[in-house]
Amino acid sequence: GGTANTEFEFMTGNSMANLGSGVYPYTIYNMETTGNLAEQFKSLGYTTTAMHPQNPENWNRSTVYQAMGFDKFLSNADFSGQEGAWGLHAGLSDASTYDHIIQMLNENAEPQFIFDVTIQNHGGYDAIDIPEDHLVPGATDALAEDAALQTRATEYLGLINASAQALESFLTRLTQLDRKVAVVFFGDHQPGFSGAINDMIFPGEDELAHNTRLYETTYFMWTNYEVTGTDIDGVVDATTWTTAGSSTLAAQLLDHIGAPLTLYQRAQL
Fold it and tell me: Cα(191)–Cα(163) distance, rounded to whole angstroms?
């Protein structure tokens, strides 16, 4: 857990492995002197926007994003009047945040760096409070011996399905824009019940491999234009990067699109 720690790794390139357990940099450190992506893109002439449709004080984001140099921080109040915005499960839907990004790209032709931290899929997962058409029939049959766990997994996978549909629509709309756009998409952490599923489906395996699985999420990088190292759909060749820490994703993204790299980012590559 700790969404803000994954944010910190991505934005600064610093690994939490070097900071000790139980540390949350957003709440204890001054970010004004910590190099980060917002500052880096701003120096290149980009407008920088952070988005998180929740309480802006959560994880001290309102202070941290300002210290990082973001031009704007859009929180829950900024989306309350958005036409067509709708909530799903824990808050504003992923799709609604993507609608806002499309609007921003259409209204401002200048270069933009947009950091979107979604809220839709936040736990818990006991309510089954999502439309039935988002649920994935049979996806959790293997968990039938534990009814409570199956309920949580059913709801979570339904939310992931909704996210996948929203993301597909978002990328399709980006291909229709007359401007170059690059996307890096990644998860902050797995749901709290992952350990129980891991133990049930993968019993008796090597302890290191077993525990490592709990800290893995999927990421991808995508562009709506052709760049070196991508296939025909603009997806980075999977043989280039397979496993990466969230603290190195920014260096990979900048290298992928040919942006200037700091010495630290070059070392990371």
Answer: 15
Q: Give the separation between CA 260 and CA 268, rounded to whole angstroms.
A: 14
Query: d(Cα 48, Cα 3) in Å, to the nearest integer?
Result: 20
pTM recorded for the entire structure: 0.92
**Which token pair is 184?**
């890096």
Distance of alpha carbon 253 from its chain centroid, rounded?
14
Tokens encoding 161? 């399905």
The CB density around residue 116, as the number of other CB atoms within 10 Å, is 18
Q: DSSP states of 160-208 as a string?
A: HHHHHHHHHHHHHHHHTSSS--EEEEE-S---TTHHHHHHHHSTT--HH
Concatenate the DSSP letters of all residues of 126-147 into one string: -S--S-GGGS-TTTTGGGTTSH
User: What's the half-sphere exposure (Cβ side, CA atoms, 13 Å) at 10?
Assistant: 19
Q: Where are the beta strands (DSSP E) in the chain?
A: 47-51, 72-74, 87-88, 91-92, 112-116, 182-186, 219-223
Structure-token match 């970010």, residue found = 31
Judged by phi (left if over 0) then psi (alpha if -120 to 50, else beta), residue 2 lies in left
Contacts of 54 (CB under 8 A, 6+ apart): 75, 76, 91, 119
Q: Is the pLDDT of residue 176 over 60?
A: yes
- With contact defined as beta carbons under 8 Å apart, do 46 and 222 qualify? no
pLDDT attached to residue 128: 82
Which 3 state secondary structure label does DSSP give 222?
strand
pLDDT one-digit tens code per residue, 178-235 = 999 999 999 999 999 999 999 998 999 999 999 999 989 889 999 999 887 655 455 5
Hey, what's the torsion of the CAs at 203, 208, 211, 215, to 10 degrees? -140
Q: What is the mean pLDDT of the chain?
A: 91
